[in-house]
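Structure, all three chains, one model.
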Amino acid sequence: MWGSNAREAHPIFFHHALAGVRNGAKMIAVDPRRSQTAKFADLWMGLNVGTDIALANGVGKYILDNNLQNDEFIAHSTQNIDEYRESIEEWTLARTSEVTGLPEYAIAELAETYATAESAQICWTLGITEHHTGAENVMALCNLSLLTGHVGRYGSGLVPVRGQNNVQGGGDMGALPNKLTGFQDVANDEIRAKFEAAWDCTIPATPGKHLTLMFEAMEKGELTTVFCIGENPADSEADINHARALLTGLDMLVVQDIFLTRTAELADVVLPASAGWAEAEGTVTNSERRVQRVRKALDPPGDAKDDLEIINMIAERMQPGWGNPSPEEMWDELRTVSPMHTGMSWERLEDEGGLQWPCPTLDHPGTLYLHGWLWEDDLGGREPAPFTVNVWRPHVDELNDDYPLLMTTGRVLDSYNTGVQSDGYNSPIRSGEALDMSPTDAERLGLATGDRAEVSSRRATIEMSIRVQPDLPEGLCFTTYHFADTTDTNQLTIEAWDKKSGTAEFKATAINVKPLVAA
Amino acid sequence: MPEIAVTAATATDEERNAVADSVLLQNPGQISFEAAGPALTFDGDRVARGGQERIFNRRHLLLPVLHDVRDAIGWLSEGAINEISTTLQVPPAEVYGVASFYELFTFEAPSAPDALHVCDDTACRIKGANELKGELSADGHNVHGSPCLGLCEQAPAVFVQRTGEAHVSVRSATKESVEAALGGAMTNPVAPVPQSSEDLTLLRRVHDAAAVDYDGYVATGGYEALAKAVAMSPAEVVTHVGNAGLTGRGGAAFPTGFKWSAVAGEPGPRHLVINADESEPGTFKDRVIMEHDPYSLIEAMTIGGYAMGAEQGWIYIRGEYPEATRQLKSAIAEARSKGMLGDNVGGHNFRFDIELRLGAGAYICGEETALLNSIEGYRGEPRNKPPFPTTHGLFGQPTAINNVETMVNVNQIMLLGGDEYAAIGTEKSTGTKLFCLSGHVANPGVYEVTYGATLREVIDLAGGATGNLKSILMGGAAGSFISTDMLDVPLTIEDSRENGFSLGSGVVMLLNDTVDYDDFVARIAQFFREESCGQCVPCRVGTVRQGESLLRIREKGAPIETERKMLDDFAMVMKDSSICGLGHTASGAILSAIDLGLIGGQP
Amino acid sequence: MTFVDIPVEIRSKVTVSVDGEAVEVLEGDTILDACTKAGKITPTVCYGPTVTPVNACRVCVVELEGARTLVPSCSRPAEEGMVVKTDTERVTNNRKMVLEFLATSSDVSQSEEIQGWLGEYGADLDRYDPATTERMTDEVKIEDDLYIRAYDRCVLCYKCVEACGEDAQWTFAIAMSGRGFNNRISTEFDVTLPDSACVYCGNCVAVCPTNALQFKTEFDLRKMGDWRPEDQTVTRTVCSYCGVGCNLDLHVQDNSIVKVDSPMDHSITSGNLCVKGRFGYQYVQNRPAE
């Protein structure tokens, strides 16, 4: 478990991991915090925030130095090993230990345990991706699976666990700047032609912008109108004050949501939507690429309408429109243009409790794991998988005497993102927003649990409660952003973002904490 | 484990130290596990080592740690439970669940540091136990009624559970002797074996005070049996035990040779566990062996370990046997220092060591799988069988479980050879048998007779009944009452079975016509109600319902016919559908008492 | 290259006789599976498809040739050649007694199944004199807005303990405590759930056979006499929190979700959810007063 607190963020996924533990599996947790997940681990390694590439490269070097790699697999299924080997030359145990803050024996133990296991998985979530080097962090972990052959086989693999119920489905449906439905490349003329024929329209060949680039475009005045569906950037973006200013400055902001969110409050037009999971029909795709049906159990309140219906109505106004097809009809249309979904009939989705793509034909059982081609004699006709070179760069928000503490963010069990949904029920285990702090730091600052403090970053200053938390190493603070109404954590976070994925570096903010004396 | 989330209660320094000391000091006799210590360790604030395997390897420390903390502090506070919980990484609800299973642990600060457990069970009940309990309570002592303490021959008995000091059992107790024990007077047990040494085989050393020391034991032929055993192959030893026809003396009479060869045939590691949780009311023979001839048990176990290739031996002794515990503890330590336990036993190139574990007041832990759960640090609830312990025993590994008396017979088998041993007794009941005579008998105590002796002969050995003998409780609470018509039945497994009773653990409790049978039988019902582990519905509820039925007969004049029908139904479901022997036998004594007309007004 | 595919578990078949009928089941299946396959309806209380059988209730007992006592069908693996009888007087009488024991010690009125079996097996509860028959009389524990614990309904089947423990949740907030008839499912020192390790996944509620553990919504509606299962719809959908894709069965009465559970036979959840999935639905029905 590398940069994942699945115990709290993905509890039912973690049940499956625990079933493995019950059967004797070993678990190593790599996380700056000794999280609830890490508490189950045989070994917890509390690395410095943002040193994942250093650790992964160090582990890679140890594996190679000690000849623990899978040479047969490397020769048959991969390429660029020499470049990779050269690129991690500097990551001796000593150097890795210096950068990550971990003892050398622990790094060696991680490498040996992973490399010598019969099967092994690396699971991660936002602890890996919410960095300015997010994509490279992922690639650095992929290198380890290529070194050892722990990929493309039953029981082994790389497991990024999705944070939202349909973030995978959004991608499946083509809600990515550079992809059409079914992850088909928008720049590919042949594919575009297929879609243009099916949809009877012209599709631009240039990729669009992802969210972070959109904000940049707003800043430059290139983007003046935004239609925002089911997203609350006015609470969830890093450096939130800046983001809010940009949204406010738009010529036109249309927000379609189930609540009057902070973003909706800034909008010119608000389109009230129904809750997709309980008030509408459709599908979602989960982390394991399983497409499943969502169904309507409740009538939505007031004039709220199904997202699809709203979009249909907008299309209607734009003329000529496309009528008001049922979800099943839309799904069937999708199956004609997305080969990975073609075998998933509506009936099969109903009867089989969901199907995992790719599922190209009606008699295809769905695909349990990807990348099995790596083990085929001809690699399924593909190129060998490349090792990548990933250079460690420290987090952007530097620590200095003015901002001596590092703040990282994450979720807690009973809450979710900006709290729009999870605030709706009375959780007996909810303890509210606070800045978690190690006992050493708290003592140095003269703070105790429950004390109020002024927390500043280079961008803003807010007031927070302090909670002393022995699971944090010295120098590290932790908080969530579930309670934006009371504590606007994202005023503090940095806008630095990963050029490949567009993800902001929520995991590393340099802060200063000053006790507030009770008035 | 998840985060061990404990309540806000924290341990006192004393409690904290008691937990830390206990965890570090456990396991002198362990060879199957890594060293003790906390289940979770930190290296600075960046590395923690924990995980299921470490927790699993320490879970069995739970009961010993609970004992140590109780003995140091006098009770188990919420803070202490929390400290144990975080140290062993066992969730607090489970620690509490386990601790609250046992009678000897309490969770509120006691009125006095030392607790007095006054036996008010069968044998002591007819020897003034209730009166003694009343006197001690009136004096403001911290008094608890107790099920049988295994001191029936010296009734009434009191177990003095002290705090910060050694526990003591007070025999033939009076208020004065109990108060002396509270002041530190120790008990120096004398073997309650009226037969002379020439008439004894298994018990031949009990009159020799020197035999409790290693040299004394060796001087009286000790370790000769082991020498004979190691001269053979392990398989040959098992064959001798099989040929001897040795059967379990704890009550079930299962052939020991079968058990041993089954365990020897399973892949290791294997365990040998001795059931010394002698708690059947009226039973005290194992106590006498352990108090007066502890090495005989150690030697026999060593032979068993050799024969089955079991490197780890365990003795699970009931917590109310302080003197026997001390003897065994010192004998194990001395045997180890003499090289007779450890990595190379007696230079014979095999490993065997013994870990002594204490029960904490739970009759059910005498059930072999409950005993295993108790050692492992779980509630002493019996397991479902199959699988049997011979394949899935302690820690899921192959395990032979034998009773103390059964085990010491192995020495005799080695000395004689299996066939020769089999010639003793009857065809189906071989060897000698220990009987525990108590109640209205002239010379209560343990008697060793060759299988085949009649009940009358055994009673005569003990000087006969006192008063007008009315019935005999055979086999303890789990046995049955028989009438004096049965006096000429030979006490063998087959003859007793044929006559509708069981020898069980060898209890022969004589009851004359002064006994208040309503009260006596009600106590047996209470015993089962209190000792049922409560896991399965038939026993958890059945033991309560049968007590209620007796109450209706006794106090409400309910018609015996109606109640008898209900009692029969209760008995049926307990016998047919309970998980373990406790439920199977919980109604036997009660129904037999009605059948014999001892209660309920008519036969 | 050696391609290692999904290991296929090969289970041989065993044939068992159930009331004279030969039934073929797979190795590792239980006698209960064989009985079910033979079309026998076997009462069970402590058995659950997603929890390790503790076989504490003993209501599923059957006669097995060669066994001295009856055996619990829910946990006894079927073996080749076993001869099982379920329709004998002995089996019926034992089941009847177990049911009498359950119904005289706990309030099983909210378990339709148990109520049905009581009638079917001819349990005679009237012969137990209420004045001398001890019952579980615990008061209902209401400690939060999510669920209640009514231990006077508890039959001590251990399922909630198993679900809270290694069978699913690994929280271990509750355990069996005490002994015998005084056994209780309890937190340490019986502290309240909010003070315990409980994380409110409600997986204990999901497996409770007698409604001793109940959603607060259900408890409140029952109290008001407004719990109307016949008017409820159950709709299967997917949880909106996180990307695991847990299936939810939404029980809806009067356009309000009153209870959430998850299918026991779905590979993602095996009937288990987290606090958000089971209780986090409220936001869709915190509607402004009309």
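Residues 167-356 of chain A form a domain with the Rossmann fold fold (CATH 3.40.50.740).
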